[in-house]
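Exercise: predict the fold of this chain.
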Amino acid sequence: MRNVILYIATSLDGYIARANGQVDWLDAIPNPNQLDYGYQAFLNTIDTTLMGNNTYQTILGFGGPFPYPDTTNYVFSRSEQPAAPYIEYVTQDPVAFVRSVKQANGKAIWLIGGGQLNTVLINAGLIDELIISIAPVVLGSGIPLFGSGVRGTALTLVKSESFETGFAQLTYVPAVNQ
């Protein structure tokens, strides 16, 4: 069975984006040595992405080409959307859909976000690993890592790493997966 990995950055106070969806605060953190925080190595382990429609729209707002043309990309939406290159819209129940994707052959599955999809999947026990990069910034408000209705979930820290930029990267697995 394939693993679903939530690989995401948050502010120190737990927000993945500003209230308007912007993640400009990530680029504002100085990174003089152009560290990638393990991003490229992580990309080599996945062949599928999962994201909510708001997250997809944010990615499109970065400009430039779609960043994941060589992966299978599923975008979850509550309503039908027009076809778009490189992605397949999913309007069915995310839990049932992700369970079926996990059963298919392939590499790991990257849960890009956002907070609502993160909540649905962690509540269903479908996230196998969480790699959370904590940025050295407090936003005060925004879109939380998990939305309202998230259930308490015990996690086990399996790795921690700090970077010269002030980022800390924490890797967790659900405590029941040990």
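Check your answer against the key: The chain has a mean pLDDT of 95.
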